[in-house]
Amino acid sequence: MPDQEMTTEATRGASAQKPLRADAQRNRDKLVEVAAQMFASDGVDASLEEIARRAGVGIGTLYRHFPTREHLVEVVYRREVEGLCHAAGDLAREHPADVALELWMQRFVDYIATKRGLATSLRVLLTTNSTLFSDTSGRVSAAMRSLIEAAAASGKIRADVDASDVMHALGGIYSAPNTPDWRERSGRLVKLLMDGLRFGARG
Amino acid sequence: MPDQEMTTEATRGASAQKPLRADAQRNRDKLVEVAAQMFASDGVDASLEEIARRAGVGIGTLYRHFPTREHLVEVVYRREVEGLCHAAGDLAREHPADVALELWMQRFVDYIATKRGLATSLRVLLTTNSTLFSDTSGRVSAAMRSLIEAAAASGKIRADVDASDVMHALGGIYSAPNTPDWRERSGRLVKLLMDGLRFGARG
DNA sequence: CACTAAAGCGGAGGTGCCTCCGTTTATTTA
DNA sequence: TAAATAAACGGAGGCACCTCCGCTTTAGTG
Predict the structure, then answer these.
(1) What is the predicted pLDDT for the residue at A161?
(2) Whole-angstrom Cα distance, residue B187 to residue B192?
(3) Looking at residue B150, what is its pLDDT?
């Protein structure tokens, strides 16, 4: 199921439909963008009518593109994952390997934050759409693995770490309670983890 | 947590509040009764406004008694269980022990049917209200056990059966697929089971 | 360019959810 | 029995969901 192009905006869904008319694609992209903001700020229960309004389209248009709230949530979520994985490449190009890794992990925290907000809907989606979990978690861990290996290869972090160990450490963020200072706490966890990774590095 | 009386209608919830005013109790009972019908016929997503309308009260009254849909579902469900267990005693009094058992199992099938309709909401409730499952399943299996033991003691069914085995057999009803002929199929299962139980009985 | 069919748009409208508060009613007290 | 008061009632109103279908725009075609 190939996506046929991948701009900064979300493209059509995975199934290979005939391409949308230009205006339709524009509206669709705008809807996803606005929805991503709204879900992040107001949670998954954000008003769909408000999303349509802010996207400058009628409610009918929203429903034509996304027949249910879950459809919209899924697309937003996949877009989030897309962005996260894409960022890995950019960061690697623009920063020393260890800095790239650290920045990426910070961004990973933001991603988890989103995921928390979407939790209820995601649970529904994950039971419905069985490919969603495997698709996304695979891509994310692949992105992280490449950053870690690059950092290790360049000598910026120690070479004896396994990507899945780091993933596991970050996993602590998942299970942490939902306190107000969750965000700061997670940021510190990333820093701490980086210190550990840098300790005893060649470079 | 004693219920202070138990008529054919649902009483107030378990917690020992001061008694409701007569009109309030009347309205509450009527709401539960109507809700039970509506949930059975239309599923848990039945309109709450319609329930209030048919019960002859304002929507505000419904919401005062049951702040959320789940509250109402829970009360209806507990009432269902109550009725089922109560029926065991009545049937035992009015019929030969084996007939009582058979009739009760038929009624059990109806109960399961309700449970299916309420499935989605029940799943939410069972994660929230941890006592609900243990309360109800305990009472139901106790009711069945007493019927089986009475039938075995009177010689109407064989004596070498274990109540939990029968429960287990009926459990097949749960896992059966949701086909349109589900009801008939289940009825036949009960008959079959009874034949097996009667085979080789003393009496 | 003009024309047309197909694709897409959008919002009115019907319904449901839930809250809030002025009005009604049961119960207690005198 | 009558007045006082606490409890309960109920529906209007505001918001969201979702469908339906007449109108508008786009992408081809000659």
Answers:
(1) 86
(2) 9
(3) 95
